[in-house]
Amino acid sequence: MRAYLYDNLENDCREPHELSPSVPVSVEELEASGVLYWKLKDDDFEQQIDRICEERNYKNRDQITVSKEGLGALFDSKIKSFFAEHLHEDEEIRAILEGTGYFDIRDKNDRWVRIKVEAGDLIVLPAGIYHRFTLDTNNYLKAMRLFKEDPLWTPLNRPCDENPHRKAYLQSISVV
Questions:
Q1: What biological-process terms (Gene Ontology) are attached (predicted)?
Q2: CATH superfamily of the 2-172 domain
Q3: Binding site annotation covers 31?
Q4: Which one of 45, 59, 117, 134 is CB 3.0 to 4.6 Å from 121, fit for a cystine?
């Protein structure tokens, strides 16, 4: 996992969009925005997932393949919807099984931070954080999605600052 400030240029969202010079963002800075990260080891992958699920009360899981083959005719519309700035009322938990992509989050200062994820990365975005997702130029990512309850993925596009989950999130990171 690599994280850095996003350059906000209008070219293809699948490009790295890294400022020049780069401004790295540490795991500790991500944690200050409520984002959690684990690097899972191949030899203990399933046991690590099971342990995290037990510790964090994740009861359900499924898999998604984000690719032209996996999504078929829906590919372009899905990629566009994933990249629209939004939040969820539940955590977004992804264990990357194959491929690479980017999660962009808004940090405490409302700046875009780009997080590059690859196989073995597990990331938790808190409920209420503004974020978006895109593939990189390889156009392929397979992920395990974890859920506290029944699988639900309802994006609420920005602005939704009055949403109670957004307000609770801002309070949790000491931004009022």
A1: L-methionine salvage from methylthioadenosine
A2: Jelly Rolls (2.60.120.10)
A3: no
A4: 117
